[in-house]
Amino acid sequence: IESFPPMPTKRFSLAAVCVGRDLVAAGGQCAMGGVLRTVEVLNVDSQQWSIASTLPQPCCRNSGAFWENRLYLLSGFNHDMNPVRSVLTCSIPDLLQSSQSPTNPAA
Fold it and tell me: How many CA atoms lie within 13 A of 66 on its CB side?
Protein backbone atom coordinates (compact mmCIF):
# COMPACT_ATOMS: atom_id res chain seq x y z
CA ILE A 1 0.00 0.00 0.00
CA GLU A 2 1.35 3.38 -1.01
CA SER A 3 0.54 6.44 1.07
CA PHE A 4 0.38 10.02 -0.12
CA PRO A 5 0.79 13.36 1.64
CA PRO A 6 -2.36 14.79 3.26
CA MET A 7 -4.64 17.01 1.22
CA PRO A 8 -4.36 20.77 1.83
CA THR A 9 -8.06 20.81 2.81
CA LYS A 10 -9.32 18.08 5.10
CA ARG A 11 -12.52 16.70 3.58
CA PHE A 12 -14.82 13.71 3.29
CA SER A 13 -17.68 12.71 0.95
CA LEU A 14 -15.72 14.03 -2.04
CA ALA A 15 -15.36 12.92 -5.64
CA ALA A 16 -11.93 11.62 -6.63
CA VAL A 17 -10.90 11.15 -10.26
CA CYS A 18 -7.63 10.03 -11.87
CA VAL A 19 -6.44 12.19 -14.75
CA GLY A 20 -3.21 10.78 -16.16
CA ARG A 21 -0.69 10.86 -13.28
CA ASP A 22 -2.83 13.30 -11.26
CA LEU A 23 -5.48 12.56 -8.66
CA VAL A 24 -8.21 15.21 -8.59
CA ALA A 25 -10.12 15.70 -5.30
CA ALA A 26 -13.30 17.74 -5.90
CA GLY A 27 -15.89 19.10 -3.50
CA GLY A 28 -16.86 17.18 -0.39
CA GLN A 29 -17.50 18.29 3.17
CA CYS A 30 -15.15 19.87 5.70
CA ALA A 31 -14.88 18.77 9.34
CA MET A 32 -17.55 21.29 10.36
CA GLY A 33 -19.96 19.82 7.79
CA GLY A 34 -19.85 22.68 5.29
CA VAL A 35 -20.01 21.73 1.63
CA LEU A 36 -16.91 22.62 -0.40
CA ARG A 37 -16.41 23.84 -3.95
CA THR A 38 -12.62 23.54 -3.83
CA VAL A 39 -10.58 21.28 -6.09
CA GLU A 40 -7.10 20.02 -5.22
CA VAL A 41 -4.78 17.96 -7.39
CA LEU A 42 -2.10 15.49 -6.32
CA ASN A 43 0.68 14.81 -8.80
CA VAL A 44 1.45 11.17 -8.02
CA ASP A 45 5.02 11.37 -9.33
CA SER A 46 6.11 14.47 -7.38
CA GLN A 47 3.86 13.73 -4.37
CA GLN A 48 2.86 17.42 -4.38
CA TRP A 49 -0.63 18.84 -3.97
CA SER A 50 -1.77 21.95 -5.83
CA ILE A 51 -4.93 23.98 -5.47
CA ALA A 52 -6.99 24.23 -8.66
CA SER A 53 -9.83 26.60 -9.49
CA THR A 54 -13.18 26.11 -7.81
CA LEU A 55 -16.24 24.18 -8.94
CA PRO A 56 -19.27 26.01 -10.35
CA GLN A 57 -21.09 25.31 -7.06
CA PRO A 58 -20.41 23.48 -3.78
CA CYS A 59 -21.18 19.77 -3.89
CA CYS A 60 -20.65 16.63 -1.83
CA ARG A 61 -21.55 12.92 -1.72
CA ASN A 62 -21.36 12.68 -5.49
CA SER A 63 -19.56 10.56 -8.05
CA GLY A 64 -16.91 11.83 -10.41
CA ALA A 65 -15.81 10.85 -13.88
CA PHE A 66 -13.18 12.07 -16.33
CA TRP A 67 -13.99 11.96 -20.04
CA GLU A 68 -12.64 13.89 -23.02
CA ASN A 69 -10.74 16.42 -20.90
CA ARG A 70 -13.71 17.23 -18.66
CA LEU A 71 -14.54 16.51 -15.05
CA TYR A 72 -18.14 15.39 -14.49
CA LEU A 73 -19.75 15.33 -11.05
CA LEU A 74 -22.96 13.36 -10.87
CA SER A 75 -25.69 13.34 -8.25
CA GLY A 76 -24.85 14.31 -4.67
CA PHE A 77 -25.94 17.31 -2.63
CA ASN A 78 -25.44 21.08 -2.71
CA HIS A 79 -24.58 23.48 0.15
CA ASP A 80 -28.18 23.27 1.50
CA MET A 81 -27.97 19.46 1.41
CA ASN A 82 -30.61 19.39 -1.34
CA PRO A 83 -30.09 16.79 -4.07
CA VAL A 84 -28.21 18.04 -7.12
CA ARG A 85 -30.40 17.34 -10.11
CA SER A 86 -27.92 18.39 -12.77
CA VAL A 87 -24.48 17.22 -13.84
CA LEU A 88 -21.70 19.63 -12.87
CA THR A 89 -18.94 19.77 -15.43
CA CYS A 90 -15.75 21.74 -15.91
CA SER A 91 -12.78 21.60 -18.20
CA ILE A 92 -9.76 19.84 -16.70
CA PRO A 93 -7.31 22.21 -18.46
CA ASP A 94 -9.20 25.18 -16.99
CA LEU A 95 -9.09 23.63 -13.51
CA LEU A 96 -5.41 22.78 -13.74
CA GLN A 97 -4.35 26.03 -15.43
CA SER A 98 -4.98 27.97 -12.25
CA SER A 99 -3.24 25.40 -10.01
CA GLN A 100 -1.03 26.80 -7.33
CA SER A 101 0.93 25.27 -4.48
CA PRO A 102 -0.90 25.35 -1.16
CA THR A 103 0.46 27.78 1.40
CA ASN A 104 -0.04 25.37 4.29
CA PRO A 105 -0.17 21.74 3.10
CA ALA A 106 -0.50 20.36 6.63
CA ALA A 107 -3.71 22.29 7.40
Answer: 16
